[in-house]
């Protein structure tokens, strides 16, 4: 029914889209909501939808699924980032986009039955979205860095709070040793997207390379205030504090780093 790789299923569990229980032999026990999300994920992956769109669609789907399977069954469709769930009484809708899947879910003799309906996409090509430009930029990074930069810039122009595009644009500039522009990009990204630990951490790395050590420490501290489990943030702070002779601060963050890495390795 699923035909999904183990790594994909593990990823969906890790992100919370799928929340199986454990059986007496530690086997995974999926609820009907889990099975529907997994089935929808497979259809979206087969339609070659970007990961960001898939995550947004699955988040909406999980949020709108009922706690129990209604007797009338469910009809689920995704149109780009929009997910529509119908049970004969309610109609939920979010976002806009292009038709990519349709699922009819029912229970027959205690077994969940899922039927997928394929529909033709309209011939007229939709306007290019921020996600389209982001995907182009990713593809161009291996062949044309300037074109990739322009594509990321177009993505944030269309969607100013597109945090992934700001992160990648700053990373691209930094990799080309344009630290000053990278700093500007990260700060602009924080203005548009709000506090984001990755933007803050990357800003700290750039500030280090610019020799702005106190500003870098402040950026790392801000990143950790948003994500205390960011191991690399603790490591970089420990290193900078040690260089400044602040041994107690360095020891504390190094201890946090080692604890987080040890926990991660034991999973």
From TrEMBL:
Pfam families named in the record: TPR_11 (PF13414), TPR_16 (PF13432)
InterPro entries named among the record's database cross-references: O-mannosyl-transferase_TMTC, TPR-like_helical_dom_sf, TPR_rpt
SMART domains associated with the record: TPR (SM00028)
TPR repeat boundaries on the chain: 197-230
Annotated keywords: Repeat, TPR repeat
Keyword Nucleus: no
Source taxon at top rank: Bacteria
Listed PANTHER family: PROTEIN O-MANNOSYL-TRANSFERASE TMTC4, PTHR44227
Protein's name in the database: HTH merR-type domain-containing protein
Record lineage: Bacteria, Pseudomonadati, Pseudomonadota, Gammaproteobacteria, Steroidobacterales
